[in-house]
Amino acid sequence: MHETSRKQDRKYIPELAVCSVLVLLSLCGMAWYETSGLLKHDIDGLLLMSICLLIATIFSVQFVQIVRSAEWIKFPGRHRAKDFVLSTSLEQAHPVHAGEQSTGRTK
Question: Any alpha helices (H) in the chain, and if so which ranges?
Answer without folding.
Answer: 2-10, 13-35, 43-69, 76-93, 95-106
